[in-house]
UniProtKB/TrEMBL annotation:
<dbReference type="Pfam" id="PF00005">
    <property type="entry name" value="ABC_tran"/>
</dbReference>
<dbReference type="InterPro" id="IPR003439">
    <property type="entry name" value="ABC_transporter-like_ATP-bd"/>
</dbReference>
<comment type="similarity">
    <text>Belongs to the ABC transporter superfamily.</text>
</comment>
<feature type="region of interest" description="Disordered">
    <location>
        <begin position="321"/>
        <end position="341"/>
    </location>
</feature>
<dbReference type="GO" id="GO:0005524">
    <property type="term" value="F:ATP binding"/>
</dbReference>
<dbReference type="InterPro" id="IPR050319">
    <property type="entry name" value="ABC_transp_ATP-bind"/>
</dbReference>
<keyword id="KW-0813">Transport</keyword>
<protein>
    <submittedName>
        <fullName>Dipeptide/oligopeptide/nickel ABC transporter ATP-binding protein</fullName>
    </submittedName>
</protein>
<keyword id="KW-0547">Nucleotide-binding</keyword>
<dbReference type="InterPro" id="IPR013563">
    <property type="entry name" value="Oligopep_ABC_C"/>
</dbReference>
<feature type="domain" description="ABC transporter">
    <location>
        <begin position="9"/>
        <end position="257"/>
    </location>
</feature>
<dbReference type="InterPro" id="IPR027417">
    <property type="entry name" value="P-loop_NTPase"/>
</dbReference>
<dbReference type="InterPro" id="IPR003593">
    <property type="entry name" value="AAA+_ATPase"/>
</dbReference>
<dbReference type="Pfam" id="PF08352">
    <property type="entry name" value="oligo_HPY"/>
</dbReference>
<keyword id="KW-0067">ATP-binding</keyword>
<dbReference type="InterPro" id="IPR017871">
    <property type="entry name" value="ABC_transporter-like_CS"/>
</dbReference>
Length: 341
């Protein structure tokens, strides 16, 4: 994949503010996603990582247009899809699919697996060569399920198998990009690896692009080409996997990485424990949003928001006034007075 390849997905200034109402009056806004910029090239996997509530699902839902953006733009395959109408969206759904976190809630319990996987074909009035049933059975086989189980219901499958059904449904229209919103976090750890491996094989064999949403950096380590780390509605660091995992520059990325035992070079002693809760997106901190939990914060961090830009000699973009360097688990420089615990 060359760096010059035109992006398949290009997001600029993507923002979602949910209005907060008291009675009929709008009294504020939840700033769930606040000005994201990123690209995904054909066949590439971008990991979107951050703690609960940082805006990952909201971002994913805007990308597939299940949610209307407040502002910003989404270009997909050269088309502006930010505010497309119903007809445009139907065409879009063929190329752009989503896999949901919860394989239980996302499958209709009253429909057979055959009907669930066939649904996107029927909604789009597509009859594949050989017929719908044959195509569905091919898809079941592709995701490692028995094609003979076409007439079974979701409750007759395990959690991992149900997620495979969701994946087969997402593949039915041969999409170019799949948004996978924490597709393995509801599954047992032993099953997680199997489903991740399946997605990786599909990505390679079908030249699929992914936006892969995850809570932590452990899950996506071997799956993503590039990684974007989110905090409170913003991207704080984005870059190639190796830069993010071996030379992270943002303190928050370091804290997330130090929690992964085989990445942190210092073992439990090098773990950076973030104190305090994530602030509310109703009223995010001034300047750098991470400053209330950052051990390096200074007055400057409170007054000026750091731009997302290349820092020192790193290949990634980082939004921090005092970027880190050196191996993971070793915080460098202590500009502020906050203690690291
Ligand atoms: N429909 C909504 N109305 C108001 N606020 C919302 C709505 N949907 C999400 N939010 C808020 O937006 C913020 C981001 O939510 P989102 O679900 O995108 O986070 P997330 O990163 O996916 O979290 P998790 O890891 O728990 O799934 C949260 O503060 C959430 O409470
Ligand atoms: S050093 Fe300042 S700018 Fe950098 S992450 Fe900490 S608070 Fe934010
Ligand atoms: Mg979510």
């Amino acid at each position: 994949m060359s760096a010059e390849t035109e992006p398949l997905l290009s997001v600029r200034g993507l923002t979602k503010h949910f209005p907060v109402r008291q009675g009929l009056r709008v009294t504020g806004a939840v700033r769930a996603v606040d000005g994201l910029d990123f690209d995904v090239r054909p066949g590439e996997t971008l990991g979107l990582v951050g703690e609960s509530g940082c805006g990952k699902t909201t971002t994913g839902r805007m990308l597939v247009r299940l949610l209307e953006p407040t502002s910003g733009s989404i270009m997909f395959a050269g088309r502006d899809i930010t505010h497309g109408g119903r007809r445009e969206l139907r065409a879009l759904r063929q190329d752009l699919q989503i896999i949901f976190q919860d394989p239980y809630a996302s499958l209709n319990p009253r429909h057979t697996v055959g009907r669930i996987v066939a649904m996107p074909l029927q909604v789009n009035r597509i009859t594949p060569p050989g017929g719908v049933k044959r195509r569905v059975q091919e898809l079941l086989e592709l995701v490692g399920l028995n094609p003979e189980h076409y007439n079974r219901y979701p409750h007759e499958f395990s959690g991992g198998q149900r997620q495979r059904i969701g994946i087969a449904r997402a593949l039915a229209l041969k999409p170019k990009l799949i948004v996978a919103d924490e597709p393995v976090s509801a599954l047992d750890v032993s099953i997680q690896a199997q489903v991740i491996n399946l997605l990786r094989d599909l990505q390679r064999d079908l030249d699929l692009a992914f936006v892969f949403i995850a809570h932590d950096l452990a899950v996506i380590r071997h799956f993503c080409h590039r990684v974007a780390v989110m905090y409170l509605g913003k991207i704080v660091e984005i870059g190639d996997r190796d830069d993010i995992y071996t030379r992270p520059q943002h303190p928050y990325t370091r804290a997330l990485l130090s929690a992964i035992p085989d990445v942190s070079t210092l073992g439990p002693a090098g773990r950076i424990r973030l104190t305090g809760d994530v602030p509310t997106p109703l009223n995010p901190p001034s300047g750098c949003r991470f400053r209330t939990r950052c051990w390096k914060a200074t007055d400057h961090c409170a007054t000026e928001e750091p731009a997302l830009t290349t820092r020192d000699d790193g290949g990634q973009l980082t939004a921090c006034h005092y970027p880190e360097s050196g191996p993971v688990g070793v915080p460098t420089g202590e500009p502020g007075s906050n203690e690291r615990t």
